[in-house]
Amino acid sequence: MRKIEKFSLFIGFIALFISYPIFASADAGGFTKKVQHPENQITSGEPLNLMMKPGQKQKVNVVLENLGEKETTIEVKLSGARTNGSGGLEYGPNTFKKDKSMKYDLADLVKVPAEVKIPGKSKENLVLDITMPETSYDGVVTGGIQLMEKGKDMGKTEENGALVTNKFAFLFGVTLHMTDKEVKPDFDLRSAKAGLANYRNAVFLDIGSTQAFLAKGMTLNAEITEKGKKEVLYQKKSADVSIAPNSLLSFPVTMDGDRMKPGDFTANVVLKGYDKEWKWSKNFTITKEEADKFNQQDPYLVQERGLNWKMIALIVGGVILLVVIVVVILKVTKKKTPQKGKKAKKKSSKGK
């Protein structure tokens, strides 16, 4: 059991970082949670880390306590672990993709209710209903469960010009094993394609983790060249990259504000970790339609966009015409306006 003990300690260490309140304060009221660990828990700490058998069914309770006087509803969301574009692990609700190699996602094995209602100053059990597959798998299936008070805002803050609503919530990890067999990491460069990263022109490199292995502390270096040429057009390096089991890292290499150009290109990628190096070289094409579409959607282009001289001429002509019309109107108005001073002089001369 030495292998599984070492691996479980590693998973438990990681899981410590995914059992925390997303937002909390001393006067928040809200609720608390306490995971009731069964006998097949293999690490210390609150996150669930269970060793299970093929076909095993098990229910695990999480005790939720309402600290307020009024009834509250806790929303429950279960998510499989994924990898974001920066090479970080995501255990909460997200839209990041799994790799095609994934056999079982956490949602395939664990069922939870959509919400739990708790009377004021009371406790209720959130029941996790776990059903393992009949066929044994090696490695881990992992993810997280988010608990959030329904409709209860904890105030609003402004971040980067955007108004953010804070809510009281918890996120804790769930990891399921079936064997103590050591699993080694492996990866594949699935695709290279044009896109937008934070509204900027970029090339996305989709790197798939093909094993049920939680990888951490890796380095990634990507270079984009024209096909058949050595000059590096764009490059991005990242350290401390993590990739969730059987998930897809969609890694963006931005074009530094340049206009996207159609053509044939090559992505050269090196991923290092666990005393191993993965190298890939993948050709890809950016079509004229793709380049035009993404250039129009990129508001940060530093190179000068083509000037629409026809539109400029129409605007200038319109302004000149407007000025002429205003001048003519002012002249006509001035002629029609009676000159009181001259009339007064004529009357006074008649009187003499």
Question: Could you characterize what this model shows?
Answer:
The structure is a single chain. The protein has 352 residues and is α+β, with helices and mostly antiparallel strands. The protein has 2 domains: 2-177, Immunoglobulin-like (Sandwich); 187-297, Sandwich (Immunoglobulin-like). 19% of the residues lie in helices and 46% in strands. The chain has helices at residues 2-15, 106-109, 288-297, 309-336, 340-351, and strands at residues 20-23, 31-35, 48-51, 57-66, 72-80, 82-83, 89-90, 110-111, 115-118, 123-131, 140-159, 162-177, 187-197, 200-209, 215-226, 232-243, 248-254, 263-273, 276-286. The strands form 5 sheets. Strands 1, 3, 5, 9, 11 and 12 form a 6-stranded mixed beta sheet that branches. It has a 4-stranded antiparallel beta sheet with strand order 2-4-10-8. The protein has a 4-stranded antiparallel beta sheet with strand order 16-15-18-19. A hairpin with a 2-residue loop joins strand 18 and strand 19. It starts with a helix and ends with a helix.
